[in-house]
C-alpha cells in the first residue's frame, strides 16, 4: 500500500519515544505525514511548546495530516469540549491555537471531539452549544480551506456520536442553519465497526461526507491483520467511491511500532 496516502498517528504509535521524536521516527519508517491527538496538556499551551511541536514536524520533513482540538482530560474520561456549556473559555482559547497551528504547519484536518453528555445539562442544550460553536468556525475554515471533522467513538457510554449517521445528523443540522463552516465525517473504521455500523454501507451512503479516515483492527485495536475486520476491502471501496484523502494509522502496535507496519507489504 502506498505510504504517501497514510499518516501515522503519533499519539498511539511510537509511544516508546518522547513525543517530539516521533515525527522523525515516522519519517524513518517511510511515511510522509503524521497526525496527533491534542499533544499538549492545556487548551492554550505556552508559545515555546507550540514552537517545539512545529519544529519537530518541520525537522522530520513530514506534514501534519491531522490534529485533534483540545479534548479535555482524556485520562479522566473526557472526550472533547465542543458541546460543553461549561468549557466556553477553553474552546475560544483552543480555537486561537488551532488557527495558529493551521498557519504554521499547513494542517487542514482538525478533529473536534463532540464531548460526553453531562448529567446537569440537557442533550438539547449541549447540541445547541455544539452547533453554535461549529457555526462560529466558519471564518477559520473559509480562510484556510481546513475541515473540522466529527468522529463517532466507541467504548464511551456518555459520548453521543456512536455511528456515522449521528455525526452526519450534526453536519446536516449545521448546513440547514445556513452556516458555511466546512464540517465533515471522520470515519474511523475501528470505532464504527465496534459500534455495529456496517462500514461498507457507511462508505456507500455517506462517502461524500467523509473528510478523514482512520483504521485499526478489531478486536484489540491493533494493526490490520491482527483481528477480523476486512480493512483492505473497505479501503478499496473507499478509493472506488472517490475518496482522495489520507488514511490515518490509529492503532496500538501489537509488538513494536516498526514491526506494526509489516501488514503494508501484504496489501496492494
Q: Report the span from N to C terminus.
A: 5 Å
Helix- and strand-based class?
alpha/beta
CATH architecture: Alpha-Beta Barrel
CATH superfamily: Divalent-metal-dependent TIM barrel enzymes
| Beta strands, count | 8
Secondary-structure element sequence? Answer: EHEHEHEHHEHEHHEHE
What number of domains? 1
- Please tally the helical runs, counting DSSP H or I stretches of 4 or more residues: 9
CATH top-level class: Alpha Beta
Which runs of at least 5 residues are low in confidence (pLDDT < 50)?
none
Task: Give the amount of beta strand, in percent.
Answer: 5-15%
Across the major sheet, the strand order is 1-2-3-4-5-6-7-8
- Summed over residues and divided by their number, the pLDDT gives a mean of 97
Helix content: 25-40%
Which fold does the CATH topology refer to?
TIM Barrel
Anisotropy-based shape:
globular
How many whole angstroms does the radius of gyration measure?
18 Å
- Summarize the biggest pleated sheet: 8 strands, parallel, barrel
Amino acid at each position: 500500500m502506498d505510504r504517501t496516502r497514510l499518516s501515522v498517528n503519533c499519539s498511539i504509535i511510537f509511544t516508546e519515544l518522547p513525543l517530539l521524536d516521533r515525527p522523525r521516527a515516522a519519517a524513518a519508517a517511510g511515511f510522509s505525514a503524521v497526525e496527533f491527538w491534542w499533544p499538549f496538556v492545556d487548551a492554550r499551551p505556552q508559545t515555546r511548546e507550540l514552537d517545539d511541536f512545529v519544529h519537530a514536524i518541520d525537522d522530520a520533513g513530514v506534514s501534519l495530516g491531522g490534529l485533534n482540538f483540545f479534548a479535555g482530560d482524556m485520562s479522566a474520561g473526557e472526550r472533547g469540549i465542543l458541546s460543553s456549556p461549561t468549557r466556553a473559555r477553553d474552546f475560544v482559547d483552543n480555537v486561537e491555537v488551532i488557527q495558529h497551528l493551521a498557519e504554521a504547519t499547513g494542517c487542514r484536518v482538525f478533529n473536534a471531539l463532540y464531548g460526553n453528555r453531562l448529567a446537569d445539562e440537557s442533550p438539547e442544550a449541549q447540541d445547541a452549544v455544539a452547533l453554535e460553536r461549529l457555526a462560529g468556525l466558519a471564518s477559520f475554515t473559509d480562510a484556510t480551506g481546513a475541515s473540522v471533522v466529527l468522529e463517532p467513538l466507541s467504548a464511551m457510554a456518555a459520548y453521543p456520536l456512536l455511528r456515522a449517521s449521528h455525526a452526519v445528523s450534526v453536519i446536516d443540522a449545521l448546513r440547514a442553519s445556513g452556516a458555511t463552516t466546512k464540517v465533515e465525517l471522520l470515519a474511523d473504521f475501528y470505532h464504527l465497526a465496534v459500534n455495529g455500523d456496517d462500514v461498507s454501507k457507511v462508505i456507500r451512503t455517506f462517502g461524500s461526507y467523509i473528510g478523514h479516515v482512520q483504521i485499526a483492527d478489531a478486536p484489540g485495536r491493533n494493526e490490520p491483520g491482527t483481528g477480523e475486520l476486512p480493512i483492505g476491502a473497505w479501503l478499496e471501496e473507499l478509493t472506488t467511491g472517490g475518496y482522495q484523502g489520507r488514511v490515518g494509522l490509529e492503532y496500538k502496535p501489537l509488538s513494536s511500532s516498526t514491526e506494526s507496519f509489516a501488514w503494508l507489504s501484504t496489501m496492494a
